Amino acid sequence: MSDVLELVDVSVVREGRALVDQVSWSVAEGERWVILGPNGAGKTTLLNVASSYLFPTSGSVQILGEKLGAVDVFELRPRIGMAGSALAEKLPRRQTVLQTVLTAAYGMTAGWQEEYDDIDERRARAFLDRLGMSDFLDRRFGTLSEGERKRTQIARALMTDPELLLLDEPCAGLDLGGREDLVRRLGRLARDPYAPSMVMVTHHVEEIAPGFTHVLLIRQGRVLDAGPVDKVLTSAALSRCFGLPLVVERQGDRWTAQGLPLV
Ligand SMILES: Nc1ncnc2c1ncn2[C@@H]1O[C@H](COP(=O)(O)OP(=O)(O)OP(=O)(O)O)[C@@H](O)[C@H]1O
Asked: Which domains are present in the chain?
């Protein structure tokens, strides 16, 4: 299996502080990774490196077989699908849900042409249907609930048929039903052999959908452990990652974690 991502000794330093500190990590084709860690650990910074939008201060990065610094990122970026709050803020609120997804086919956030190919429109409708958004095609993006916005963004990220899909906290801000709905949909995507390789950032083990294969634990910019979910996701490792005693349990194909009571 070829590498989709390969980071070697990658550091991102700002104001004398390493936000990501000598990270070496590789993602092989078909793997579905979760990046888990506390607030400020460096998860989004790592994802921004993986998306080619952030160049590291030191170390080397290969994305989809291309070396960052030696490749035209404008050719690389359409091969990467992204969904996260930073991108959502750039999406015009007045644009309809269908247009929001369609514009991705043209590498833009806002629509400037009225005419789209039929095939693009069919694809946009199909992705929105897969994410349960068929009833919202003509709704303006700005009027959607948080959950509907998240699902629209994921449909949008899939529109360019990416080889790598990066999701930054897709379940953040969702209520219990919204989270469970999205986890099920992400699980279906994760188990689809034709779906792209995936990396999802989260704070919560409850958001790990079935089908995700690997976990990277990060704290203060450093990788504590990275590997297959069953091997890495232990109570000891999670306690170290979040800095307090936690018990993690697997229930069927889902995970839960809770803190030990104070004595
Ligand atoms: N441009 C910057 N200059 C200085 N510090 C920065 C910059 N960008 C991010 N940081 C800091 O780097 C650290 C890591 O940020 P990052 O957003 O990657 O963390 P995160 O794990 O995604 O956090 P969260 O879970 O809270 O979203 C944080 O302490 C943040 O304040």
From this structure: 3-88+161-259 (3.40.50.300)
